From TrEMBL:
Lineage: Bacteria, Pseudomonadati, Bacteroidota, Cytophagia, Cytophagales
Superkingdom: Bacteria
The protein, known as: Nucleoid-associated protein
Any Pfam family the entry gives: NA37
Record GO cellular component, one term: nucleoid
């Protein structure tokens, strides 16, 4: 968790980074940006920081030595000596250009910012922010001229819509620093260049990560193993997802044996879940270079809130009906009408609202 109430903007520079495959190049500012207007500073702080709302942290990684991670090295030089800020901003911009090789990546303004007085996990730390704006919005401007009103337009940046951002907090250097990421354009494989090619980060192991990961694994287990292809009816799938979320909402500490007994229950399903978990651990370790923790850990309520949004408790019947199942699975009974040659569900309830 972080708090930006008392944060100060110390240094800022803006470069323009294009698409390398199109040979658009890098346009470098010659000096730092001089901000004497308090209102502009406040607007920039809102633009840069308001999108960071999750407790999901990352850390810099490298196959052999984290010191060989370019962004880690350049930011480390800034933390060691803030007088290096401009020179290192040039290095970071050039590195981003090298990572922008997919032909669909848009060029745009690239901001490097040095903040002080950030609070992250109750610790006071400075931070380096990296932000890129790839999209412009069109704004109408109404103004008065000669006792009349005129309208024109201009292209600009919407301060409520940060395209890409990264905050590197000056804490836990030995573990690759504590990093937060915003990527509102990450809807396709080429957009992942920000995290994978430029920053090269991996998940930071904390209670948020462990909680989110275990719930995600439960969802994947239902989707891949307890599927309708395996003759597991949709209400049964939804029931397991609902019970998983309820367990994490009610408990403060996760216990795997308790979870299996209270949520999964059926011995044959428990066995299938254990087999899937081992496969999931190995696959995730290779992909994310992180050892997953599936034993006891403190449950993060914020991770539960964020992850449960992906859990769908809706039963869709052709294009005619959508039934939301939140409670007892036994109140939903499936049947088949021989005369109509159609399936049906019976729903049992006490009160109609």
């Amino acid at each position: 968790m972080f708090n930006f109430d008392g944060v100060s903007l110390q240094n800022i520079v803006v470069h323009n980074v294009g698409n390398k495959s199109k040979e658009e190049g890098v346009q470098l500012s010659k000096t730092l940006l001089n901000l004497n207007d308090d209102l502009i500073q406040d607007l920039l702080l809102k633009y840069f920081l308001s999108s960071f709302k999750t407790d999901a942290f990352f850390q810099f990684g490298h196959d052999s030595d984290v010191n060989l991670n370019e962004v880690y090295h350049y930011v480390d030089q800034i933390f060691e000596n803030p007088d290096n800020f401009y020179d290192q901003s040039v290095n970071i911009a050039k590195h981003l250009y090298e990572a922008s090789h997919h032909n669909k990546i848009k060029g745009g303004e690239f901001y490097i910012v040095h903040f002080t007085d950030c609070i992250v996990d109750d610790e006071l730390a400075d931070a380096v922010g990296l932000f890129k704006s790839e999209n412009k919005d069109t704004y109408l401007r109404v103004y008065q001229q000669n006792n009349n009103f005129n309208i024109d337009y201009a292209d600009g940046i919407n301060i409520n819509k940060l395209d890409k951002g990264c905050l590197i907090f000056n804490t836990e250097k030995e573990h690759g620093y504590k990093v937060c990421i915003v990527d509102n354009l990450n809807k396709s494989s080429q957009a992942q260049y920000w995290r994978d090619d430029f920053l090269r980060v991996k998940p930071y192991e904390n209670n948020f990560y462990h909680t989110q990961n275990y719930l995600t694994m439960c969802k994947d287990f239902v989707d891949e193993v307890l599927s309708e292809e395996q003759e597991v009816e949709r209400p049964e799938q939804i029931a397991l997802l609902n019970k998983s979320v309820e367990y994490f909402k009610e408990k403060e500490v996760f216990n795997e044996s308790e979870f299996e007994q209270e949520v999964i229950q059926k011995p044959e399903v428990v066995e299938a879940f254990r087999e899937y978990k081992e496969q999931y651990k190995e696959q995730h370790k290779e992909e994310a270079d992180v050892e997953l923790k599936f034993e006891d850990f403190e449950i993060s309520s914020n991770a539960v809130k964020e992850t449960k949004k992906k859990f769908k408790s809706v039963l869709k019947l052709d294009k005619n009906f959508s039934v939301y199942i939140h409670g007892n699975r036994d109140y939903v009974v499936k049947g088949f009408d021989e005369e109509r040659q159609m399936s049906y569900y019976q729903l049992y309830y006490n009160d109609e609202k």
